[in-house]
Design brief:
Distance between the termini: 20 Å
CATH class of the domain at 145-289: Alpha Beta
Structural class: alpha+beta
Number of helices: 10
Number of strands: 10
Strand content: 15-25%
CATH topology of the domain at 145-289: Nucleotidyltransferase, domain 5
Helix content: 25-40%
Low-confidence stretches: 255-272, 281-295
Order of helices and strands: HHEEEHHHEHEEHEEEEHHH
Largest sheet: 5 strands, mixed
């Protein structure tokens, strides 16, 4: 169960050399999943379980890493309740895929994962979508100082119908890291207000641009600060920090959207993709392009276990 792992040494070479063996990769995953050292049942949350082992000479071998809960008597492995559940792909491949997507500056397409890991494109597409889904919402509302903004993405190729195919997206970023994103039907007051009510706590200070759709919904919040972009005011420094720097995040992750989606996958795929890209733009106070082993390691552990 205990596997020595140093986050400072986390890189693709380390994963390929030390954890290409499936047993070692599984033990590393179990250490991340259960940092206390004891398997926890994902069905009843009981922390007492025993390992199921095959009898000598039996034809039907038990799976490696299979446990049985002593309370509910259900069997489980470390992958149950994670993006790896019900996948026949090796854990070592999953770990490398998580690292590639978490550490790439502009995200990574399924075709590139397919080429680098030597798996089928169908398997790579499946892995990428599960990994991006793991970047999703944790259900906790944003608090403190929150920046909110909207943009339109997609609509490439034919100029005549480009505006019809553009997809409105709204992002909210909490000062210090957490982020939420939603694909919306339009940038009306009703839609913007619904997203703010769902994602942002009423006690928060919300920073936006001068879009009129924010004015009424944010009257019930603690404070609402704006910048006037029509007068070329794109940021303002207050005593509690700078207002409206989310535009820089949009400029960074839109190329990633182009790389991974080839224009548009439709709204279902875009919800998953924007979750990854906006979280990436919010990481480490918007210095996510500086690849830091500890940040990648913490992101991987969060995605794999939550």
């Amino acid at each position: 169960m205990k596997t020595k792992f140093d986050a400072d040494e986390l890189n693709l070479i380390t994963l390929a050399k030390k954890y290409s063996n499936e047993t070692k990769a599984r033990k590393l995953f179990e250490m991340w999943r259960w940092p206390g050292g004891k398997p926890i049942c994902p069905h009843c949350k009981h922390d007492e379980a025993y390992t199921i082992k095959s009898k000598p000479g039996t034809k039907n071998k038990a799976r490696a890493g299979l446990y049985c809960c002593s309370a509910c008597r259900k069997t489980f492995t470390a992958t149950v309740g994670t993006p790896l559940e019900d996948s026949h792909l090796p854990i070592s491949k999953w770990l490398m895929a998580f690292f590639l997507i978490a550490s790439s500056k502009k995200s990574m397409s399924a075709h590139q994962v397919h080429r680098m890991l030597k798996i089928t494109y169908k398997a790579a597409w499946f892995m990428c979508h599960r990994i991006r889904f793991a970047f999703g919402d944790d259900g906790v509302k944003l608090k403190g100082i929150v920046e909110a903004d909207e943009t339109f993405v997609g609509g490439r190729d034919d100029v005549r119908t480009m505006q019809l195919r553009k997809i409105p997206v709204m992002a909210s970023i909490e000062r210090g890291g957490r982020a939420k994103t939603r694909v919306i039907a339009g940038v009306s007051q009703k839609n913007l207000g619904a997203v703010l009510a769902e994602c942002v706590d009423k006690s928060a200070t919300v920073n936006t641009d001068e879009h009129p759709g924010y004015k009424n919904p944010l009257k019930t919040f603690a404070r609402h600060d704006t910048v006037n972009q029509s007068k070329e005011e794109y940021h303002r420094v207050n005593p509690d920090g700078t207002i409206s720097t989310l535009d820089a995040g949009f400029r960074e992750f839109l190329p990633g959207y182009a790389v991974t989606s080839y224009g548009s996958q439709g709204k279902t795929g875009d919800v998953v993709l924007f979750s990854e890209l906006v979280v990436r733009a919010a990481t480490d106070r918007r210095q996510w392009y500086i690849i830091r082993p500890h940040a990648i390691h913490s992101s991987m552990v969060r995605m794999l276990t939550e």
